[in-house]
Amino acid sequence: MIGGAQSRIAAAAGLAAVATLIVAPLFLRRYGLYLVSDWAVMTIAAMGLNLTLGYAGQVSLAQGAFVGVGAYSAAILTTHGWPFAAAMALALAVSFAVGWALGYPALRVRHHYLAFVTLAFSTLAFLVFRNEAWLTGGVEGIDGVPRPSLFGWSMRPPLAYAYFCLAALAFVAAAMAWLIRSPWGRSFLALRENPLRAQSLGVDTRRYTLLAFAIGSALGGAAGALYAPLVGLVEPPAFTLALSLNLLMMVIVGGSGYFLGPFLGALIAVMAPEWLRAWENYYLILYAVLVMGLLVVSPTGILGLIDRYALHRAAAEASAARAALKPSIEGP
Amino acid sequence: MAVLEVSGLSKRFGGVAAVSDVSFAVQEGEILGVIGPNGSGKTTLFNCILGQLRPSAGEVRFDGRVTTGMNPSALNRLGVSRTFQLLQVFPRLSARENLILAGQEHRGGMVSRLAGPRDAGLGGAADELLAFFGLGSLAGTRAGSLSYGQQKLLDAAMAFMSGPRLVLLDEPAGGVNPSMLVTLKERLQAYHAERRATLVIIEHNMDFVMSMCGRVLVLAEGRTLAVGAPAEVRANPKVIEAYLGR
């Protein structure tokens, strides 16, 4: 069987990672717990972008804006006394609807041009956050976003909120795993790889394009709804183009179109400033050099590098199998 | 009964008339060949029939219903399927997944495609069709790892997966080695005999066209040059002139 040992190693690594995520927060202090929560939130947002960009092939420079839409939705509702569940529902609904609307340009333009359209939306969202003070608090933002409580348990302590974010991540990851293995996932992939052929096979590319945008944006919104109570203060500078680019970087560095890509990319993006702290202000330069180096070696990110190795081996085995099979195909 | 009726179809690109006033009908269960020198408008004709291009003039009817300019995916769901001149399989998906993709949008609704089984209930049908095209043992192999001829077979199989009433094949034999060509032709004939699918085939390989098609349509410079039985068309002086020059 191809890759039997490989899949055993992958399963063991997966189990180890999950066990670490469950146990490690118990040994972390406040800042460590903040980083774990931030990682979980950013992974959710990056998973959304990975669906739009990685699976369905639609470029978006607006994922950070959707995190903002979700964060503001949640902040506005919870500071007016609504429960967190309602805030999350609103964040999902608003970002889904806005994402659907942003999908329409994608029906007409692709690639760089689509990037420009989403870039414009990103700027527009920032201006709304900053200028519509009656709704968003303007430059001051919205302070004192409360953390939810679950069945009477307060999620206020950092440890509790870190587990809350990890649980949300686990839920989103399970839903995403289901989605990309369903026929929808197959149609998204067809849309990315070859829209013309997908159409000729009955795939309603229009509907799937809009869905890819809407679902990806909704996950950005969900991440925002988790982010607002994490930091407590929601203000415009958090949701500029820089966040969108950072999320794009996470998807690409981890491996665009790979399920685990966002986990890895978000880990690097959240932890790199910590690991490279000794470099002080030069850390961004070093980070940029490392990313460029990676993209030269492997444009499909870290997981793409691993996959290429696995594919290389699988191709060798397949051609051996094909050679063995040849006579029977040409028989009839 | 005519499955496909094309009347007065024209397609202009700026000042160039790629297809001019082409009319023909394809009867249920027929295999129609479309031949003509390079640049005679065969693929443009296909693209106009299939909604990939909007014709400048004329009308296309499928099963008596006007489908001119209809969106290709909607037309496919009505029962019109195609292959392209160049290979268009999905290299990263397995052979079986390629076929499931080709059939999944034809059954159930969006909800069942999300919440229902991963193979959309098509795993068995996909394996059956793979076996029919002699690819049974390669179901789990990535399409990109198959040989060119095998991919060409898979490409054709994908067009049949949804059980279409009409299939337009654009150069199915192009670039296929002779032994694989025998398999391809024999499988297409067997499929046609079993399911009575109506086929329209663009092909440059004359042996392939002459032995498979009941009727042949000849295009030259976007116009209909001749229509008729293969032997008739082959003997037509105008056709010989178009191919060989005066």
What can you tell me about this protein's structure?
The complex is a heterodimer of chains A (332) and B (246). Chain A has 332 residues and is an all-alpha fold. Chain A has one domain (4-243). Chain A is 76% helix and 1% strand. Chain A contains 14 helices and two strands; from the N terminus they run ααααααββαααααααα. A two-stranded antiparallel ribbon of chain A has the order 1-2. In chain A, strand 1 (149-150) and strand 2 form a beta hairpin. In chain A, helix 2 runs parallel beside helix 7 and helix 4 packs antiparallel against helix 10. The longest helix of chain A is centred in the C-terminal third of the chain and has 30 residues, at 301-330. The radius of gyration of chain A is 21 Å and the shape is globular. By secondary structure, chain B is an alpha/beta fold. Chain B is 38% helix and 25% strand. Chain B is built from ten helices and ten strands. Chain B has helices at 42-49, 72-78, 95-104, 110-115, 123-132, 148-160, 178-195, 206-212, 230-235, 237-244; strands at 2-13, 16-27, 31-35, 57-62, 65-66, 80-82, 166-170, 198-202, 215-220, 223-228. Chain B has a six-stranded mixed beta sheet, with helices on both faces. Chain B is globular, with a radius of gyration of 18 Å. The model of chain B has no long low-confidence stretch (mean pLDDT 92). Chains A and B meet through helix 8, helix 9, helix 10 and helix 14 of A and helix 2, helix 3, helix 4 and helix 7 of B.
Describe the structure concisely.
Chain A has 332 residues and is an all-alpha fold. Chain A contains 14 helices and two strands; from the N terminus they run H-H-H-H-H-H-E-E-H-H-H-H-H-H-H-H. Chain A has one domain.
